[in-house]
């Protein structure tokens, strides 16, 4: 180095990183702390309902490709409802024909519920007057 000249600077990329890898547990703790701070009023009113809403929104924000695959029968029923098909026609395509009695009624009810759940907006998107 020449006296009176500026010191040589190394490019940033060559500097060793002092940051450690983010921990999932630390990220969750920060997230929970932020929720407790920002939504203290809602938590005080009904902590259980708040927790259920947070978990629902968190699950829907995560990818569903792995671990929780979509059922093809529900996908097909959703498409058929969008085309204006009646439930009787949908049941014929999406529910096994060998189901009888209470088992068939239960399968029909679950299919309708699953279709509703896919069409339902997230609770945060619901506008209340």
What would you note in describing this structure?
This protein has 129 residues and is an all-alpha fold. It has two domains: 25-67, no CATH class; 70-129, no CATH class. The protein is 57% helix and 0% strand.
Number of separate structural domains: 2
> What's the helix-strand series?
HHHHHH
Beta-strand residue fraction: under 5%
Largest sheet: none
Number of helices: 6
Question: Span from first to last CA?
Answer: 71 Å
Strand tally is 0
Q: In which range does the helix fraction lie?
A: 55-70%
Query: Which structural class should the secondary elements be placed in?
Result: mainly alpha
Low-confidence stretches: none
Q: Return Rg in Å.
A: 26 Å
Q: Write down the overall geometry.
A: elongated
Mean pLDDT: 81
Quick summary:
By secondary structure, the protein is mostly helical.
Keywords:
57% helix; 129 residues; elongated; mainly alpha
SSE diagram, text form:
Layout: H1 24-38, H2 40-45, H3 47-61, H4 72-82, H5 87-94, H6 101-119
């Amino acid at each position: 180095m020449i006296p009176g000249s500026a010191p040589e600077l190394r490019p940033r990329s060559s500097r060793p990183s002092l940051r450690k890898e983010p921990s999932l547990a630390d990220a969750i703790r920060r997230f929970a702390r932020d929720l407790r701070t920002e939504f203290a009023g809602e938590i005080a009113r009904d902590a259980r309902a708040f927790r259920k809403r947070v978990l629902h929104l968190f699950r829907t924000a995560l990818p569903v490709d792995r671990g929780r695959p979509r059922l093809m029968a529900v996908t097909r029923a959703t498409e058929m409802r969008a085309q204006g098909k009646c439930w009787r026609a949908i049941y014929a395509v999406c529910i096994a024909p060998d189901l009888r009695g209470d088992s068939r009624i239960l399968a029909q009810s679950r299919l309708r519920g699953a279709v509703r759940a896919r069409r339902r907006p997230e609770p945060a998107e619901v506008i209340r007057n």
